[in-house]
């Protein structure tokens, strides 16, 4: 599904095993980063080699100041038709790309094809887990001429990510990983590049495989939202999503600047999230600890918008939106993470989820620019969760009310290369709003000129079963989801 045939790649013999992989010794020079990968990644590569096909894909995981963690490798699907062109994202009517043919080699790969896959995958990842690089499996005669192209892919991914999720790049580590596996010798060559500057060169890195699964900590929160947005006249010609994104980014910045309480305590950012006494547990005891570890509850504290001293601005506005609801947030960090890293992860999840819902809705509906005072209501996609194979880390997807579960399962398989059944998915964390919720939201006052404070605990400010919505007057839209 995510690979392209080529005849020159012989499949390894049946006796081959993961242990026969060879790792590049360049990292022994003491230079660059160390990437810790689960042994499952080796099995994944071996399956690709057995298929006799070359492929390109994404590495998802977590970057830290100490070392990096590769959680999973994901093959990039083949190009599909009718994808909106990124070059036309600011126009009112974006054009559609023609269906692309399979690339003949790595050097012919379209970097935007891989970058769009990275964007879709990022939507489906919890806070703390990101697209941290690219991997390729191919023979030397294909990888050697493609070095410049692979570097372009890494920078293209960074560009798309920064444009879609701009606030996530404020404090992130900017190194990205390029893993190359030779299909003839099964040799691993790992490099990293700092994507903050196109002039930066690739540097050696160490790809380190370990058999035992790493310990991960789960953070969770439900955050109530009540945002009132005025849409200026000058923004009327922009795409619907661009208007919403520009309006909610100031609110997201308040989340970034706010305070987070960990299990009802405000803790120092430099201390370890988990007590050191639980570190260093090895073998079976470590696995048992991982299985019984409880999620960490998080609360958000932000400054009231009405208390922020700003000079008044007069604008000619065409419409107003109200964003209401309760966002179900989840994030995962390594057990040796600091409080600061954990806070950054849970904030990123909230912002990523908010932006993703708005973008997915704008892609799903046909927005008609008509002057009307009638409020139209639309359900937003609800968030469902599942777990990555052999890992405590979860992924998510956003499901519209009219979608069938088989469509969701197929999308997860295509984008994440994960096979799941309906029983593997948590479909209860959010649910579609009832008629009563619709009526309550549509009758709520919209004359307020400032937003409410975001709630500091699950359900506070908006009761359990609250909706998530956007109401636009003149051009009126309501987006909903409900927490269970």
Structure description:
This protein is of the alpha/beta class. The protein folds into two domains: 208 residues, Cytidine Deaminase, domain 2 (3-Layer(aba) Sandwich), CATH 3.40.140.10; 268 residues, no CATH class. The protein is 25% helix and 27% strand. Helix 2 packs across helix 4. The longest helix has 26 residues. The protein is globular. The protein starts with a strand and ends with a strand. The N terminus and C terminus are likely disordered.
Give the helix tally.
9
- Supply the helix-strand structural class: alpha/beta
Provide the domain count: 2
What is the 3D form? Answer: globular
Oligomer: single chain
Question: What is the terminal-to-terminal distance?
Answer: 35 Å
- Would you report the number of β strands? 21
Largest sheet: 10 strands, mixed
Strand content: 25-35%
Q: Roughly how much helix do the residues carry, as a percent range?
A: 25-40%
Helices and strands, in order, run as: EEEHEEHEHHEEEEEHEHEEHEEEHEHEEE
Mean pLDDT: 77
């Amino acid at each position: 599904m995510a690979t392209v045939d080529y005849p020159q790649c012989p499949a390894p013999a049946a006796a081959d095993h993961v242990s026969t992989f060879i790792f590049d010794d360049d990292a022994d020079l003491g230079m660059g980063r160390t990437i810790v990968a689960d042994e499952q990644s080796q099995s994944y590569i071996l399956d690709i080699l057995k298929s006799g096909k070359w492929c390109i894909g994404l590495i998802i995981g977590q970057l830290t100041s100490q070392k990096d963690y590769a959680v999973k490798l994901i093959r990039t699907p083949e190009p599909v038709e009718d994808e909106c062109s990124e070059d036309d994202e600011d126009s009112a009517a974006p054009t559609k790309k023609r269906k692309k043919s399979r690339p003949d080699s790595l050097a012919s790969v379209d970097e935007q094809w891989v970058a769009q896959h990275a964007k879709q995958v990022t939507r489906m990842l919890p806070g703390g887990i990101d697209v941290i690089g690219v991997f390729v499996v191919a023979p030397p005669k294909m990888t050697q001429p493609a070095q410049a192209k692979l570097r372009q892919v890494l920078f293209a991914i960074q560009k798309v990510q920064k444009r879609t999720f701009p606030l996530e790049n404020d404090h992130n580590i900017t190194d990205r990983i390029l893993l190359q596996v030779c299909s003839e010798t099964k040799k691993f060559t790992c490099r990293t590049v700092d994507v903050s500057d196109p002039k930066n060169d690739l540097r050696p890195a160490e790809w380190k495989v370990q058999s035992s699964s790493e310990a991960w900590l789960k953070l969770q929160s439900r955050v109530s939202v009540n945002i009132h947005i005025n849409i200026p006249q000058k923004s009327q010609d922009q795409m619907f999503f661009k208007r919403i994104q520009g309006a909610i980014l100031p609110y997201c910045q308040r989340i970034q600047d706010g305070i987070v309480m960990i299990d009802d305590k405000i803790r120092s950012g430099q201390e370890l999230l988990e007590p050191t006494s639980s570190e260093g547990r090895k073998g079976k005891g470590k696995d048992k600890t991982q299985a019984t570890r409880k999620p960490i509850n998080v609360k958000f504290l932000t400054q009231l918008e009405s208390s922020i001293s700003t000079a008044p601005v007069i604008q000619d506005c065409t419409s107003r939106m109200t964003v209401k609801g309760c966002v179900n947030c989840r994030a995962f960090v390594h057990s040796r993470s600091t409080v600061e890293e954990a806070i950054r992860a849970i904030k990123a999840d909230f912002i990523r989820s908010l932006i993703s819902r708005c973008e997915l809705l704008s892609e799903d509906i046909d927005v008609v620019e008509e002057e009307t005072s009638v409020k139209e209501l639309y359900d937003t996609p609800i968030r469902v969760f599942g777990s990555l194979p052999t890992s405590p880390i979860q992924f998510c997807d956003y499901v519209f009310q009219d979608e069938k579960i088989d469509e969701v399962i197929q999308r997860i398989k295509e984008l994440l290369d994960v096979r799941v059944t309906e029983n593997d998915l948590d479909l209860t964390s959010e649910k579609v709003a009832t008629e009563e919720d619709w009526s309550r939201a549509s009758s709520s006052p919209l004359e307020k000129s400032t937003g409410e404070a975001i709630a500091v605990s699950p359900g506070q400010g908006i009761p359990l079963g609250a909706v998530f919505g956007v109401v636009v007057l003149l051009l009126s839209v309501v987006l909903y989801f409900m927490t269970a």
